[in-house]
Recover the amino acids of this structure.
Protein backbone atom coordinates (compact mmCIF):
# COMPACT_ATOMS: atom_id res chain seq x y z
CA UNK A 1 0.00 0.00 0.00
CA UNK A 2 0.98 3.63 -0.49
CA UNK A 3 1.17 5.93 2.56
CA UNK A 4 -2.23 7.36 1.60
CA UNK A 5 -3.80 3.90 1.39
CA UNK A 6 -2.30 2.95 4.77
CA UNK A 7 -3.68 6.03 6.50
CA UNK A 8 -7.14 5.76 4.94
CA UNK A 9 -7.32 1.98 5.62
CA UNK A 10 -6.50 2.54 9.26
CA UNK A 11 -9.25 5.13 9.52
CA UNK A 12 -12.06 3.08 8.07
CA UNK A 13 -10.91 -0.29 9.37
CA UNK A 14 -10.66 -2.01 6.02
CA UNK A 15 -8.16 -2.32 3.22
CA UNK A 16 -8.93 0.50 0.75
CA UNK A 17 -8.16 0.54 -2.95
CA UNK A 18 -7.89 3.49 -5.37
CA UNK A 19 -11.22 4.51 -6.86
CA UNK A 20 -13.20 3.29 -3.86
CA UNK A 21 -15.64 5.77 -2.32
CA UNK A 22 -15.32 5.89 1.45
CA UNK A 23 -16.83 7.81 4.32
CA UNK A 24 -13.80 8.63 6.38
CA UNK A 25 -13.72 9.87 9.98
CA UNK A 26 -11.45 12.89 10.36
CA UNK A 27 -8.96 13.87 13.06
CA UNK A 28 -9.32 17.57 12.51
CA UNK A 29 -10.97 20.34 10.51
CA UNK A 30 -10.17 24.00 10.10
CA UNK A 31 -11.46 27.02 8.22
CA UNK A 32 -10.25 30.57 7.67
CA UNK A 33 -11.86 33.97 7.31
CA UNK A 34 -12.22 33.36 3.56
CA UNK A 35 -14.08 30.08 3.94
CA UNK A 36 -15.52 29.92 7.49
CA UNK A 37 -18.32 32.50 7.13
CA UNK A 38 -19.98 30.57 4.28
CA UNK A 39 -19.28 27.32 6.15
CA UNK A 40 -20.98 28.59 9.30
CA UNK A 41 -23.97 29.67 7.23
CA UNK A 42 -24.08 26.26 5.52
CA UNK A 43 -23.67 24.45 8.87
CA UNK A 44 -26.70 26.24 10.26
CA UNK A 45 -28.73 25.71 7.06
CA UNK A 46 -27.95 21.98 7.18
CA UNK A 47 -29.57 21.82 10.58
CA UNK A 48 -26.23 21.66 12.43
CA UNK A 49 -26.45 22.55 16.10
CA UNK A 50 -23.20 21.24 17.63
CA UNK A 51 -19.95 20.47 15.86
CA UNK A 52 -18.88 16.80 16.04
CA UNK A 53 -15.99 17.53 18.44
CA UNK A 54 -15.00 21.10 19.38
CA UNK A 55 -11.44 20.01 20.23
CA UNK A 56 -10.92 18.78 16.67
CA UNK A 57 -12.18 21.99 15.05
CA UNK A 58 -10.28 25.24 14.65
CA UNK A 59 -11.03 28.62 13.13
CA UNK A 60 -8.23 30.94 12.05
CA UNK A 61 -8.30 34.62 11.10
CA UNK A 62 -5.44 34.93 8.62
CA UNK A 63 -6.55 35.94 5.12
CA UNK A 64 -7.56 39.52 5.83
CA UNK A 65 -6.00 40.57 9.13
CA UNK A 66 -6.38 42.97 10.80
CA UNK A 67 -9.75 43.56 9.14
CA UNK A 68 -9.30 46.06 6.30
CA UNK A 69 -12.93 47.20 6.22
CA UNK A 70 -16.22 46.93 8.07
CA UNK A 71 -17.58 44.11 5.90
CA UNK A 72 -14.66 41.84 6.77
CA UNK A 73 -14.61 43.03 10.38
CA UNK A 74 -18.19 41.77 10.69
CA UNK A 75 -17.27 38.40 9.20
CA UNK A 76 -14.56 38.15 11.84
CA UNK A 77 -17.16 38.96 14.51
CA UNK A 78 -19.37 36.17 13.16
CA UNK A 79 -16.48 33.68 13.40
CA UNK A 80 -15.63 34.72 16.97
CA UNK A 81 -19.26 34.30 18.00
CA UNK A 82 -19.56 30.86 16.39
CA UNK A 83 -16.30 29.71 18.03
CA UNK A 84 -17.52 30.89 21.43
CA UNK A 85 -20.93 29.24 21.10
CA UNK A 86 -19.39 25.96 19.95
CA UNK A 87 -16.40 25.93 22.30
CA UNK A 88 -14.01 25.86 19.34
CA UNK A 89 -10.53 27.38 19.53
CA UNK A 90 -10.27 30.52 17.43
CA UNK A 91 -6.83 31.81 16.48
CA UNK A 92 -7.37 35.54 16.22
CA UNK A 93 -5.55 38.14 14.14
CA UNK A 94 -1.78 37.94 14.35
CA UNK A 95 -1.57 34.31 15.50
CA UNK A 96 -0.52 33.30 12.02
CA UNK A 97 -1.42 31.43 8.86
CA UNK A 98 -3.82 28.52 9.33
CA UNK A 99 -1.41 25.84 8.13
CA UNK A 100 1.49 27.06 10.22
CA UNK A 101 -0.73 27.30 13.30
CA UNK A 102 -2.24 23.82 12.81
CA UNK A 103 1.25 22.29 12.66
CA UNK A 104 2.75 24.39 15.48
CA UNK A 105 -0.18 23.72 17.80
CA UNK A 106 -0.18 19.99 16.92
CA UNK A 107 -3.78 19.97 15.68
CA UNK A 108 -2.40 17.74 12.96
CA UNK A 109 -0.06 14.82 13.62
CA UNK A 110 1.52 11.99 11.61
CA UNK A 111 -1.10 9.59 10.28
CA UNK A 112 -4.04 11.98 10.66
CA UNK A 113 -6.80 12.57 8.16
CA UNK A 114 -7.31 16.32 8.18
CA UNK A 115 -9.77 18.46 6.22
CA UNK A 116 -9.16 22.16 5.77
CA UNK A 117 -11.17 24.78 3.96
CA UNK A 118 -8.11 26.09 2.17
CA UNK A 119 -6.46 24.73 -0.93
CA UNK A 120 -3.01 24.52 0.68
CA UNK A 121 -4.18 22.07 3.35
CA UNK A 122 -2.10 19.27 1.71
CA UNK A 123 0.87 21.03 3.40
CA UNK A 124 0.31 18.68 6.38
CA UNK A 125 1.54 15.79 4.27
CA UNK A 126 4.97 17.06 5.44
CA UNK A 127 4.11 15.17 8.64
CA UNK A 128 2.78 12.10 6.81
CA UNK A 129 -0.81 13.21 7.34
CA UNK A 130 -3.46 12.76 4.64
CA UNK A 131 -4.78 16.30 4.34
CA UNK A 132 -7.17 17.66 1.73
CA UNK A 133 -8.46 21.08 0.89
CA UNK A 134 -12.21 21.54 0.50
CA UNK A 135 -14.67 24.39 0.11
CA UNK A 136 -17.02 25.85 2.67
CA UNK A 137 -19.99 23.50 2.30
CA UNK A 138 -17.83 20.36 2.50
CA UNK A 139 -16.22 21.85 5.58
CA UNK A 140 -19.62 22.50 7.15
CA UNK A 141 -20.66 18.91 6.48
CA UNK A 142 -17.44 17.61 8.04
CA UNK A 143 -17.86 19.83 11.12
CA UNK A 144 -21.38 18.46 11.50
CA UNK A 145 -20.80 14.76 10.84
CA UNK A 146 -17.13 14.29 11.77
CA UNK A 147 -16.54 12.53 8.49
CA UNK A 148 -16.12 13.23 4.79
CA UNK A 149 -16.85 11.20 1.69
CA UNK A 150 -13.74 10.70 -0.39
CA UNK A 151 -12.65 8.80 -3.41
CA UNK A 152 -9.46 6.94 -2.49
CA UNK A 153 -6.93 8.55 -4.83
CA UNK A 154 -4.36 6.87 -6.99
CA UNK A 155 -0.85 7.94 -6.00
CA UNK A 156 2.02 9.38 -8.02
CA UNK A 157 5.55 8.70 -6.85
CA UNK A 158 8.22 11.36 -7.30
CA UNK A 159 11.72 10.08 -6.62
CA UNK A 160 14.62 12.51 -6.39
CA UNK A 161 18.21 11.31 -6.43
CA UNK A 162 21.19 13.29 -5.23
CA UNK A 163 21.58 16.32 -2.98
CA UNK A 164 20.74 19.95 -3.59
CA UNK A 165 23.57 22.40 -4.14
CA UNK A 166 24.23 24.91 -1.36
CA UNK A 167 22.23 27.88 -2.62
CA UNK A 168 19.38 25.68 -3.88
CA UNK A 169 16.46 25.15 -1.52
CA UNK A 170 13.26 23.16 -1.11
CA UNK A 171 11.43 25.98 -2.91
CA UNK A 172 13.66 25.66 -5.97
CA UNK A 173 13.06 21.91 -5.95
CA UNK A 174 9.28 22.16 -5.71
CA UNK A 175 9.11 24.90 -8.38
CA UNK A 176 11.14 22.59 -10.63
CA UNK A 177 8.79 19.67 -9.90
CA UNK A 178 5.64 21.77 -10.47
CA UNK A 179 7.13 22.76 -13.82
CA UNK A 180 7.68 19.11 -14.73
CA UNK A 181 4.38 17.67 -13.47
CA UNK A 182 2.40 20.80 -14.57
CA UNK A 183 -0.52 22.58 -12.97
CA UNK A 184 -2.95 19.76 -13.69
CA UNK A 185 -0.55 16.80 -13.75
CA UNK A 186 -1.66 15.35 -10.43
CA UNK A 187 -5.38 16.21 -10.49
CA UNK A 188 -7.45 13.92 -8.22
CA UNK A 189 -4.27 12.08 -7.17
CA UNK A 190 -2.00 11.96 -4.14
CA UNK A 191 1.71 12.58 -4.57
CA UNK A 192 4.34 10.76 -2.53
CA UNK A 193 7.82 12.28 -2.44
CA UNK A 194 10.49 9.66 -2.16
CA UNK A 195 14.20 9.98 -1.49
CA UNK A 196 16.61 10.98 1.23
CA UNK A 197 16.57 14.57 0.09
CA UNK A 198 12.96 14.84 1.32
CA UNK A 199 13.28 12.71 4.44
CA UNK A 200 16.34 14.69 5.59
CA UNK A 201 14.63 18.06 5.19
CA UNK A 202 13.65 20.24 8.13
CA UNK A 203 9.94 20.35 8.93
CA UNK A 204 9.81 23.85 7.40
CA UNK A 205 11.34 22.67 4.12
CA UNK A 206 9.11 19.60 4.01
CA UNK A 207 6.13 21.95 4.35
CA UNK A 208 7.37 24.06 1.42
CA UNK A 209 7.41 20.89 -0.70
CA UNK A 210 3.98 19.54 0.23
CA UNK A 211 2.45 23.04 0.18
CA UNK A 212 2.83 23.27 -3.56
CA UNK A 213 1.22 19.95 -4.47
CA UNK A 214 -1.88 22.16 -4.71
CA UNK A 215 -0.16 23.75 -7.73
CA UNK A 216 -0.14 20.35 -9.45
CA UNK A 217 -3.83 19.74 -8.76
CA UNK A 218 -3.13 17.02 -6.20
CA UNK A 219 -5.56 15.94 -3.53
CA UNK A 220 -2.75 15.35 -1.05
CA UNK A 221 1.05 15.23 -0.98
CA UNK A 222 2.99 13.18 1.49
CA UNK A 223 6.55 12.67 2.69
CA UNK A 224 7.39 9.67 4.88
CA UNK A 225 7.56 10.45 8.59
CA UNK A 226 10.89 8.61 8.63
CA UNK A 227 13.49 11.25 9.49
CA UNK A 228 10.84 13.74 10.62
CA UNK A 229 11.73 15.78 13.69
CA UNK A 230 8.89 17.22 15.76
CA UNK A 231 8.97 18.74 19.23
CA UNK A 232 6.75 15.92 20.53
CA UNK A 233 7.27 12.21 20.23
CA UNK A 234 5.33 10.08 17.78
CA UNK A 235 5.43 6.36 17.14
CA UNK A 236 4.01 5.98 13.69
CA UNK A 237 6.55 5.83 10.91
CA UNK A 238 4.73 5.85 7.60
CA UNK A 239 6.59 4.36 4.66
CA UNK A 240 5.05 2.91 1.53
CA UNK A 241 5.24 -0.85 0.98
CA UNK A 242 7.85 -1.98 -1.52
CA UNK A 243 5.09 -3.34 -3.74
CA UNK A 244 2.79 -0.29 -3.45
CA UNK A 245 1.03 0.63 -6.69
CA UNK A 246 1.55 4.04 -8.25
CA UNK A 247 -0.25 5.37 -11.31
CA UNK A 248 2.92 7.19 -12.37
CA UNK A 249 6.51 7.22 -11.19
CA UNK A 250 8.80 10.16 -11.95
CA UNK A 251 12.53 10.11 -11.25
CA UNK A 252 14.85 13.11 -11.25
CA UNK A 253 18.49 13.69 -10.49
CA UNK A 254 18.58 17.00 -8.65
CA UNK A 255 22.33 17.35 -8.00
CA UNK A 256 22.82 20.06 -10.60
CA UNK A 257 19.49 21.88 -10.06
CA UNK A 258 19.78 25.69 -10.18
CA UNK A 259 17.59 28.36 -8.59
CA UNK A 260 14.13 28.23 -10.16
CA UNK A 261 11.65 31.01 -10.95
CA UNK A 262 7.99 30.66 -11.91
CA UNK A 263 7.23 33.41 -14.41
CA UNK A 264 3.75 34.95 -14.95
CA UNK A 265 1.01 33.77 -14.97
CA UNK A 266 1.18 30.23 -13.68
CA UNK A 267 3.25 28.44 -11.02
CA UNK A 268 4.22 25.76 -13.54
CA UNK A 269 5.93 28.27 -15.85
CA UNK A 270 9.26 27.56 -14.22
CA UNK A 271 12.67 28.40 -15.62
CA UNK A 272 16.26 28.51 -14.37
CA UNK A 273 16.77 31.88 -12.68
CA UNK A 274 19.45 32.76 -15.25
CA UNK A 275 16.74 32.86 -17.95
CA UNK A 276 14.98 35.85 -16.35
CA UNK A 277 17.99 37.36 -14.53
CA UNK A 278 18.03 41.13 -15.02
CA UNK A 279 14.22 41.53 -15.00
CA UNK A 280 13.57 44.77 -13.05
CA UNK A 281 11.43 44.44 -9.94
CA UNK A 282 9.49 47.03 -7.94
CA UNK A 283 8.45 44.98 -5.00
CA UNK A 284 9.70 41.91 -3.11
CA UNK A 285 7.63 39.81 -0.73
CA UNK A 286 8.51 37.00 1.67
CA UNK A 287 5.86 35.19 3.66
CA UNK A 288 2.91 32.79 3.15
CA UNK A 289 2.22 29.17 4.00
CA UNK A 290 4.85 28.28 1.42
CA UNK A 291 7.86 30.30 2.66
CA UNK A 292 7.10 32.47 5.69
CA UNK A 293 8.87 30.34 8.31
CA UNK A 294 11.94 31.08 10.44
CA UNK A 295 14.41 29.33 8.14
CA UNK A 296 13.02 31.38 5.23
CA UNK A 297 13.48 34.68 7.08
CA UNK A 298 16.96 33.56 8.10
CA UNK A 299 17.85 32.72 4.50
CA UNK A 300 16.79 36.23 3.49
CA UNK A 301 18.68 37.79 6.41
CA UNK A 302 21.83 35.95 5.43
CA UNK A 303 21.68 37.53 1.95
CA UNK A 304 20.81 41.00 3.26
CA UNK A 305 23.08 41.24 6.32
CA UNK A 306 24.96 44.52 6.25
CA UNK A 307 23.27 45.71 3.04
CA UNK A 308 20.52 48.18 2.30
CA UNK A 309 17.77 47.72 -0.28
CA UNK A 310 17.91 50.58 -2.82
CA UNK A 311 15.28 53.28 -3.07
CA UNK A 312 12.63 52.38 -5.59
CA UNK A 313 12.30 48.82 -4.33
CA UNK A 314 9.96 47.95 -1.49
CA UNK A 315 10.27 44.81 0.57
CA UNK A 316 7.43 43.35 2.64
CA UNK A 317 7.64 40.43 5.03
CA UNK A 318 4.68 38.66 6.64
CA UNK A 319 5.91 36.00 9.10
CA UNK A 320 3.93 32.75 8.95
CA UNK A 321 3.01 32.92 12.62
CA UNK A 322 3.43 34.88 15.82
CA UNK A 323 5.89 32.19 16.98
CA UNK A 324 7.92 32.63 13.78
CA UNK A 325 7.95 36.40 14.32
CA UNK A 326 9.01 36.13 17.96
CA UNK A 327 11.73 33.59 17.18
CA UNK A 328 13.00 35.88 14.43
CA UNK A 329 12.89 38.80 16.81
CA UNK A 330 14.74 36.95 19.56
CA UNK A 331 17.57 35.73 17.36
CA UNK A 332 18.13 39.05 15.59
CA UNK A 333 16.78 38.02 12.19
CA UNK A 334 14.09 40.70 12.19
CA UNK A 335 16.64 43.35 13.12
CA UNK A 336 18.79 42.39 10.13
CA UNK A 337 15.80 42.42 7.79
CA UNK A 338 14.52 45.77 9.03
CA UNK A 339 18.02 47.29 8.92
CA UNK A 340 18.09 46.23 5.27
CA UNK A 341 14.83 48.10 4.65
CA UNK A 342 12.08 45.50 5.08
CA UNK A 343 8.61 46.43 6.35
CA UNK A 344 7.13 43.76 8.63
CA UNK A 345 3.42 42.93 8.42
CA UNK A 346 1.07 41.19 10.83
CA UNK A 347 1.59 37.40 10.74
CA UNK A 348 -0.95 36.02 8.27
CA UNK A 349 -1.44 35.53 4.53
CA UNK A 350 -0.50 39.15 3.85
CA UNK A 351 -0.41 40.38 0.24
CA UNK A 352 -0.54 36.85 -1.24
CA UNK A 353 -4.34 36.75 -1.39
CA UNK A 354 -4.82 40.17 -2.96
CA UNK A 355 -7.25 41.50 -0.41
CA UNK A 356 -5.15 44.22 1.22
CA UNK A 357 -1.65 44.90 2.59
CA UNK A 358 0.55 45.44 -0.41
CA UNK A 359 -1.45 45.34 -3.62
CA UNK A 360 0.94 46.02 -6.54
CA UNK A 361 0.33 48.97 -8.87
CA UNK A 362 -0.26 48.86 -12.63
CA UNK A 363 2.67 47.46 -14.61
CA UNK A 364 4.61 46.72 -11.46
CA UNK A 365 6.66 43.57 -11.13
CA UNK A 366 6.73 41.57 -7.92
CA UNK A 367 9.15 38.86 -6.88
CA UNK A 368 7.48 36.74 -4.25
CA UNK A 369 8.21 33.69 -2.11
CA UNK A 370 4.54 32.67 -2.34
CA UNK A 371 3.04 29.76 -4.25
CA UNK A 372 0.72 31.38 -6.82
CA UNK A 373 1.22 33.95 -9.55
CA UNK A 374 -2.07 33.80 -11.41
CA UNK A 375 -3.21 37.03 -13.00
CA UNK A 376 -4.77 39.29 -10.37
CA UNK A 377 -3.59 37.06 -7.55
CA UNK A 378 -2.20 39.93 -5.46
CA UNK A 379 -5.19 42.16 -6.18
CA UNK A 380 -4.20 43.82 -9.45
CA UNK A 381 -4.57 42.06 -12.82
CA UNK A 382 -2.19 44.59 -14.38
CA UNK A 383 0.87 43.49 -12.42
CA UNK A 384 3.33 40.63 -12.86
CA UNK A 385 4.32 38.12 -10.22
CA UNK A 386 7.47 35.98 -10.29
CA UNK A 387 7.82 33.19 -7.70
CA UNK A 388 11.15 32.24 -6.14
CA UNK A 389 12.88 31.06 -2.97
CA UNK A 390 13.30 33.51 -0.06
CA UNK A 391 17.04 33.81 -0.79
CA UNK A 392 16.40 34.68 -4.44
CA UNK A 393 13.69 37.18 -3.40
CA UNK A 394 16.10 38.85 -0.96
CA UNK A 395 18.93 38.97 -3.50
CA UNK A 396 16.57 40.43 -6.11
CA UNK A 397 15.34 43.07 -3.65
CA UNK A 398 18.95 44.11 -3.12
CA UNK A 399 19.78 44.21 -6.83
CA UNK A 400 16.46 45.72 -7.97
CA UNK A 401 16.30 42.95 -10.54
CA UNK A 402 15.95 39.20 -10.55
CA UNK A 403 19.23 37.61 -9.56
CA UNK A 404 20.49 34.45 -7.95
CA UNK A 405 22.16 35.02 -4.53
CA UNK A 406 25.35 33.39 -5.80
CA UNK A 407 25.60 36.08 -8.52
CA UNK A 408 25.38 39.04 -6.12
CA UNK A 409 28.59 41.05 -5.88
CA UNK A 410 29.83 40.82 -2.32
CA UNK B 1 -29.00 29.52 -24.52
CA UNK B 2 -25.51 30.78 -25.32
CA UNK B 3 -22.26 28.86 -24.99
CA UNK B 4 -19.40 30.86 -23.46
CA UNK B 5 -16.17 29.16 -24.48
CA UNK B 6 -12.84 29.62 -22.71
CA UNK B 7 -9.50 27.81 -22.66
CA UNK B 8 -7.39 25.72 -20.29
CA UNK B 9 -6.45 26.33 -16.66
CA UNK B 10 -9.01 29.02 -15.83
CA UNK B 11 -8.06 29.54 -12.18
CA UNK B 12 -10.29 30.67 -9.35
CA UNK B 13 -8.55 34.06 -9.19
CA UNK B 14 -9.86 34.65 -12.71
CA UNK B 15 -13.32 33.28 -11.93
CA UNK B 16 -13.69 35.53 -8.90
CA UNK B 17 -10.74 37.58 -7.58
CA UNK B 18 -9.88 37.07 -3.89
CA UNK B 19 -10.69 40.68 -3.06
CA UNK B 20 -14.41 40.06 -3.65
CA UNK B 21 -14.75 36.73 -1.86
CA UNK B 22 -15.03 37.91 1.72
CA UNK B 23 -18.77 38.40 1.87
CA UNK B 24 -21.97 36.58 2.76
CA UNK B 25 -23.88 38.53 0.13
CA UNK B 26 -23.48 35.93 -2.60
CA UNK B 27 -25.55 37.93 -5.08
CA UNK B 28 -22.72 40.52 -5.11
CA UNK B 29 -20.34 37.98 -6.66
CA UNK B 30 -22.02 37.90 -10.07
CA UNK B 31 -20.95 41.51 -10.74
CA UNK B 32 -17.29 40.44 -10.78
CA UNK B 33 -17.42 36.95 -12.24
CA UNK B 34 -14.58 36.30 -14.73
CA UNK B 35 -13.77 40.02 -14.80
CA UNK B 36 -10.00 39.62 -15.20
CA UNK B 37 -10.47 37.08 -18.00
CA UNK B 38 -13.36 38.56 -19.95
CA UNK B 39 -14.58 41.93 -18.67
CA UNK B 40 -17.67 41.72 -20.90
CA UNK B 41 -18.80 38.32 -19.66
CA UNK B 42 -21.09 39.68 -16.97
CA UNK B 43 -22.93 41.80 -19.56
CA UNK B 44 -23.23 38.95 -22.06
CA UNK B 45 -24.33 36.12 -19.79
CA UNK B 46 -28.01 35.22 -19.62
CA UNK B 47 -29.77 32.83 -17.24
CA UNK B 48 -29.54 29.30 -18.60
CA UNK B 49 -26.27 29.82 -20.49
CA UNK B 50 -23.54 27.21 -20.51
CA UNK B 51 -19.85 27.73 -19.88
CA UNK B 52 -17.48 25.51 -21.86
CA UNK B 53 -13.82 25.22 -20.95
CA UNK B 54 -10.69 23.21 -21.58
CA UNK B 55 -8.47 21.45 -19.08
CA UNK B 56 -8.27 21.96 -15.34
CA UNK B 57 -11.14 24.42 -14.98
CA UNK B 58 -11.24 26.05 -11.53
CA UNK B 59 -7.67 25.36 -10.44
CA UNK B 60 -6.20 27.32 -7.56
CA UNK B 61 -7.91 28.25 -4.33
CA UNK B 62 -10.63 26.42 -2.43
CA UNK B 63 -13.02 29.36 -2.65
CA UNK B 64 -16.55 28.09 -3.07
CA UNK B 65 -17.36 31.62 -4.18
CA UNK B 66 -16.07 30.58 -7.64
CA UNK B 67 -18.91 28.18 -8.57
CA UNK B 68 -21.35 30.35 -6.60
CA UNK B 69 -20.41 33.39 -8.72
CA UNK B 70 -21.00 31.42 -11.94
CA UNK B 71 -24.33 30.10 -10.69
CA UNK B 72 -25.39 33.56 -9.51
CA UNK B 73 -24.51 34.96 -12.94
CA UNK B 74 -26.96 32.49 -14.48
CA UNK B 75 -24.67 29.72 -15.71
CA UNK B 76 -26.71 26.52 -15.77
CA UNK B 77 -23.95 23.98 -16.43
CA UNK B 78 -20.18 23.99 -16.87
CA UNK B 79 -18.71 21.61 -19.43
CA UNK B 80 -14.93 21.11 -19.41
CA UNK B 81 -12.27 18.74 -20.55
CA UNK B 82 -11.62 18.23 -16.84
CA UNK B 83 -11.86 20.14 -13.56
CA UNK B 84 -9.63 20.94 -10.61
CA UNK B 85 -10.76 18.73 -7.75
CA UNK B 86 -11.86 21.30 -5.16
CA UNK B 87 -13.84 23.25 -7.76
CA UNK B 88 -15.45 19.97 -8.82
CA UNK B 89 -16.67 19.18 -5.31
CA UNK B 90 -17.66 22.78 -4.61
CA UNK B 91 -19.78 23.03 -7.76
CA UNK B 92 -21.72 19.87 -6.90
CA UNK B 93 -22.03 20.98 -3.27
CA UNK B 94 -23.69 24.26 -4.24
CA UNK B 95 -25.88 22.62 -6.87
CA UNK B 96 -24.12 23.72 -10.06
CA UNK B 97 -24.12 20.82 -12.54
CA UNK B 98 -20.76 20.19 -14.18
CA UNK B 99 -19.66 17.60 -16.68
CA UNK B 100 -16.22 16.37 -17.64
CA UNK B 101 -15.98 15.21 -21.26
CA UNK B 102 -12.27 15.06 -22.16
CA UNK B 103 -10.86 16.75 -25.27
CA UNK B 104 -13.60 18.40 -27.29
CA UNK B 105 -14.23 20.71 -30.18
CA UNK B 106 -17.41 22.43 -29.06
CA UNK B 107 -17.87 25.76 -30.88
CA UNK B 108 -20.00 28.80 -30.14
CA UNK B 109 -22.49 27.71 -32.83
CA UNK B 110 -22.77 24.16 -31.47
CA UNK B 111 -26.24 23.12 -30.37
CA UNK B 112 -25.73 20.81 -27.44
CA UNK B 113 -27.73 18.38 -25.37
CA UNK B 114 -26.46 17.30 -21.99
CA UNK B 115 -27.27 14.04 -20.22
CA UNK B 116 -25.77 14.41 -16.79
CA UNK B 117 -26.85 10.99 -15.51
CA UNK B 118 -25.21 9.24 -18.46
CA UNK B 119 -22.27 11.64 -18.42
CA UNK B 120 -22.49 12.62 -22.04
CA UNK B 121 -22.83 15.69 -24.21
CA UNK B 122 -24.22 15.61 -27.75
CA UNK B 123 -23.19 18.33 -30.20
CA UNK B 124 -26.06 18.10 -32.67
CA UNK B 125 -24.65 20.80 -34.97
CA UNK B 126 -21.47 18.85 -35.64
CA UNK B 127 -23.05 15.46 -34.92
CA UNK B 128 -20.50 14.51 -32.30
CA UNK B 129 -21.17 12.58 -29.11
CA UNK B 130 -18.81 13.19 -26.19
CA UNK B 131 -18.91 10.35 -23.70
CA UNK B 132 -17.67 11.90 -20.49
CA UNK B 133 -17.32 10.81 -16.89
CA UNK B 134 -20.44 9.71 -15.06
CA UNK B 135 -20.82 11.27 -11.64
CA UNK B 136 -20.85 8.85 -8.72
CA UNK B 137 -24.30 8.30 -7.23
CA UNK B 138 -23.55 10.41 -4.16
CA UNK B 139 -22.80 13.42 -6.38
CA UNK B 140 -25.98 12.86 -8.41
CA UNK B 141 -27.91 12.69 -5.12
CA UNK B 142 -26.33 15.93 -3.90
CA UNK B 143 -27.13 17.65 -7.22
CA UNK B 144 -30.71 16.37 -7.14
CA UNK B 145 -31.07 17.99 -3.73
CA UNK B 146 -29.71 21.25 -5.25
CA UNK B 147 -26.62 20.99 -3.10
CA UNK B 148 -25.12 19.48 0.02
CA UNK B 149 -27.00 21.74 2.45
CA UNK B 150 -30.36 20.31 1.37
CA UNK B 151 -28.92 16.82 1.03
CA UNK B 152 -27.75 16.78 4.64
CA UNK B 153 -30.84 18.54 5.92
CA UNK B 154 -32.76 15.57 4.50
CA UNK B 155 -30.38 12.66 5.19
CA UNK B 156 -28.44 13.94 8.26
CA UNK B 157 -25.39 11.93 7.09
CA UNK B 158 -23.66 10.69 3.96
CA UNK B 159 -24.73 7.58 2.09
CA UNK B 160 -22.21 5.96 -0.21
CA UNK B 161 -22.71 2.90 -2.34
CA UNK B 162 -19.49 1.55 -3.66
CA UNK B 163 -18.96 1.34 -7.35
CA UNK B 164 -15.42 0.78 -8.49
Amino acid sequence: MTITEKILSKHIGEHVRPGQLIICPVDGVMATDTTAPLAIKAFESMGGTKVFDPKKCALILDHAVPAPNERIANLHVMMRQFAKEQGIELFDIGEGICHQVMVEQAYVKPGHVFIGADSHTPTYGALSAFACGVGSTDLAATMMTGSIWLKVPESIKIICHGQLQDSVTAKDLILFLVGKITISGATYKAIEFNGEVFENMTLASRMTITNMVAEMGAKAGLISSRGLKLDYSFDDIYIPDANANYSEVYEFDISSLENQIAIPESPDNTVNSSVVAGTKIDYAFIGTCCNGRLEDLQAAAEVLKGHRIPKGVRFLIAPASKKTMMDAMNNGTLQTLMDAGAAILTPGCGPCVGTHQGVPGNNETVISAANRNFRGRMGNPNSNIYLASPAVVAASALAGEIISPSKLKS
Amino acid sequence: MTLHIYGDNIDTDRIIPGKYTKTLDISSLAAHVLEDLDPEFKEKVQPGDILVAGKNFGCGSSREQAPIALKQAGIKTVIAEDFARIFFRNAINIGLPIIEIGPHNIKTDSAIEIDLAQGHVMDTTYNKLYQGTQLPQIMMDILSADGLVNYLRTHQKFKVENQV
Q: What stands out?
A: Chain B has a mean pLDDT of 94. The two ends of chain B are 36 Å apart (CA to CA). Chain B touches chain A at residues 9, 11, 13-14, 17-19, 21-24, 36, 55-56, 59-65, 82-86, 89-90, 93-94, 136, 138, 147-149, 152-153, 156-158, 160-164 (CB under 8 Å). Chain B is about 25% helix and 15% strand.
